[in-house]
Design brief:
mainly beta, Jelly Rolls, 2 domains, seven-stranded antiparallel β-sheet, 4 helices
């Protein structure tokens, strides 16, 4: 009995030994349904077969977007002269860039801080723009997206942006109304005044014509004259058309003679320089006096908006380099020991030194201001922001 038990034990040991030797060989060819090997998996990793994998091409690193502006400051400290200047350069052909003039409000009246306009437009940078009358009305041409906000004065150069290219030209404008054999011109356009003449107001001006004297109105809605109405106080501007208002006996008689209810009328305008018409541009904005033209300083001794150009004060200018780069320069001033400011000719020389070909003056003094990434980078001469009628924004 003992011998039989011993035989069974020996046989069992032999069986286990044979299985232990053969199991890896079997495991190479036979695997379980769940994909795991049937024995001694952890100690035989060399036997694991790796499924074929299609190589995945490494992604091409995306090109970093070009910066939409270049900002830097320049300082000079001499025995009798100190200067702090701030320069913003942009490539208007950059498709990621939005560069345009903006108003302080939706209509043509009023003022706002540059920082508020910066926030409203969610800009990356902003610079004060040009000039206005005391009520905030712009002092010259502003046209954008095919809409004429204000006409040209004909006295100052205009900055244009056309399909990513900026240029500066002298320009004038003409506004007229025509239709049904009628031509009505020599008009005041979106212009606040109470002197005699014929005026045209569009919704860009506001909701009312703001005239508080007796005037005759032709109400034009969807291109049709809906009626002529005499009023002694401000009258409504149609949202879907324009209003023609006549002040004075001669103007009222002319309007009444030419314009009849039921007529179809169209409002048209042209921006031109001599025989050249400017069309198809993105926007146009009238600035102050010329500073540089074809690399030559031509700044006048006096500017109609700022007065003398021969004293050192804070100044803002916009220029264009030979390669199309648009450059804004803000020079601080009226701060003894920090920055004295620049004369007009000194401003011209600084712009030449920076490689500018053509440049024009913008509003200066306490209005000179530049914001970059939410920070006022210059030092406004009043020690705080001044409210402005308009600005240039970059975003």
């Amino acid at each position: 009995m003992k011998i039989r038990r011993l035989q069974i034990v020996v046989l069992l040991i032999l069986s286990i030994t044979v299985l232990w030797i053969l199991c890896p060989a079997i495991g190479r060819n036979i695997s379980a349904e769940d994909g795991h090997y049937s024995c001694n998996e952890q100690n035989n990793q060399d036997y694991v077969t790796t499924p074929a994998v299609t190589p995945i091409a490494s992604p091409i690193p995306s090109k970093e977007p070009e910066p939409i502006y270049k900002y830097y400051s320049i300082t000079e400290n001499k025995a009798n002269f100190n200067l702090s200047m701030h320069v913003l350069e942009i490539d208007p052909s950059n498709p990621d860039l939005v560069f345009r003039p903006v108003l302080s409000h939706k209509t043509l009246f009023g003022y706002e801080y540059l920082s508020v306009m910066y926030d409203t437009w969610q800009a990356k940078a902003a610079v004060n723009a040009g000039f206005s009358y005391s009520n905030g009305m712009l002092g010259g041409l502003f046209a954008i997206d095919g809409e004429l906000y204000t006409p040209a004065s004909g006295n100052y150069p205009v900055l244009f942006l056309d399909k990513g290219k900026a240029y500066i030209e002298d320009a004038s404008s003409r506004v007229w109304v025509e239709g049904d054999g009628v031509l009505l011109d020599n008009l005041f356009y979106n212009h606040y005044s109470e002197k005699e003449g014929i005026y045209v107001f569009t919704p860009l001006y506001g909701t009312m014509n703001r005239l508080d004297v007796e005037h005759l109105n032709a109400f034009v809605s969807n291109g049709e004259v809906r009626g002529l109405i005499l009023r002694n106080e401000s009258y409504e501007i149609p949202k879907d058309g324009f209003l023609i208002s006549a002040i004075g006996k001669k103007a009222k008689a002319r309007l009444e003679e030419l314009i009849k209810p039921g007529m179809d009328l169209n409002l048209k305008y042209d921006i031109y320089n001599g025989e050249k018409s400017f069309t198809g541009f993105d926007w146009a904005y009238e600035c102050g006096s010329w500073i540089l033209k074809d690399h030559e300083i031509i700044v006048p001794e006096n500017d109609g908006w700022v007065g003398t150009m021969q004293t050192r004060v804070p100044r803002t200018a916009v220029g264009i380099k030979e390669d199309g780069t648009v450059l804004f320069l803000v020079a601080d001033g009226r701060q003894k020991g920090f920055s004295d400011g620049l004369t007009g000719r000194e401003l011209g020389q600084k712009l030449l030194d920076l490689g500018v070909k053509d440049a024009v003056n913008l509003d200066g003094g306490a209005s000179s201001e530049m914001i970059v990434e939410g920070r006022i980078v210059n030092s406004p001469s009043a020690g705080r922001e001044r409210m402005l009628p308009c600005a240039f924004i970059i975003k």
